[in-house]
Amino acid sequence: MQDINEIQLQMHAPCTELIGFVQTIWFATNTSNKQTLSFKILNDCASGFIFNFGDEINLKMKGVNQVSQKEYLLLGPTTDMLTLTFKNEINCIGIRFFPETGHHFLNVEMSQLANKIIFRYKSHFETGSVLYKDIKQLLDKKADKKDVIHIIEAYLLHVLKKSKVKIHHKLNNILKAIQNDQGINISKISHDFKISHRDLQRLFKRYIGVAPNVYIRINKIRNLKTIIANNRFDSLTQLSLDNGYFDQAHFIRDFKGFMQETPKKYYKIKNPN
């Protein structure tokens, strides 16, 4: 894997009106690149868009390779590792929703988009091609990033205003509970929020696109990979026990299932010295 600085990644928080709906608007740029640069990304089950104005990007998810060149695409919710491989000129702009908010902009049951990469997505994002052209015009004029961000925000606010999807406060509270309690399980959620297992499944299927038990597991792994990368643990055995695993073997198997690396190898990658 390559150094993230080689794609000059910049992430920008959206305007106040979108702060609860959009995680980030990001830019990846290296117009003089002549290399092949690969990056692995552990998804958080959020959907988003990539607007590619550069050369080839190879996207690998669920063992399937797809190639993008000078077009826009939708990344549906997934728990799988996404590998982005850039070849030659890099000039991408991305929109990343929260796991529970892509539904507001796409107005479709999110499970229908799960584990999918859809090029020139038009079914529920009809004017995506218009936004792509508008951004390209600004880029051709060497416009400032703030102007590009402004036109993206204006578009998203327009879509949000027309959306018939309402904020689901119970779901938001459930997601906060999952984030704050690494040992939480389906039974505890069902009890604390007075929701049946079946209704919980339906809620996640509609708004997020993945099963709640899988969402809980990936949230735990994302938290653990941060702890490991920052060397904030005494031993892997204790780390596994502190996070609800029966033993270290279960922890290693779960971690490798999502990260494609063992915890020990991931630690060495992030802490080479």
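(ticket continues) Second input and output from the same batch:
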Amino acid sequence: MVDDRVLSQGITTWRSLIDFAIRTGHTELYESEDGRQGLRRPGFRYAPISRLPERAPEYVKDVLTGRLASYLEQKKLHLTSARVAADDTFKAQVVLDGSTFQISIFEGRKLDSTWSFKLMDLPRTPGLKADDEEAQQAFVAKRIKRIQREGRIAGGDARLISKAVIRAVESILKNIEVSK
């Protein structure tokens, strides 16, 4: 239980307080002074919730990702990223179809492999954005290594290819947030 006097919710639970804050536009997680995360409106300096409970940042990310996934499914968006270079040989291209990412790996100009995953499959951590990117790169690298063992990708460094895939995914998601 928490006694909320800033958002005028009174005595309530953390979950309902966070849900109310998200509904009223508080969608940006930031690092507060004591190393914990807070929740505020994008572009604002101060926040009504300056110290979230331990698992709350992950909950906020899950709610926002779920909203984005349902928005993408509803709009049936079809967006394509540019080819992002992983190294001198390999490139990654990502196509968003609804809330599914179609990943294409190219060796030179030749299509080497394709696979897909859903937006909700990308891991989210209770940490900051850098922690999420690291977990997402590990998720994609694991998938690439499995495809390499199956012989569907000729070679290449899975870590570099996964970084390229995540950069392409982020560029698509950034374009969606700008166009909303």
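Agent notes: The chain has two domains: 2-53, 75-179. Helices lie at 14-23, 56-75, 129-149, 158-179. Closing as not reproducible unless the customer responds.
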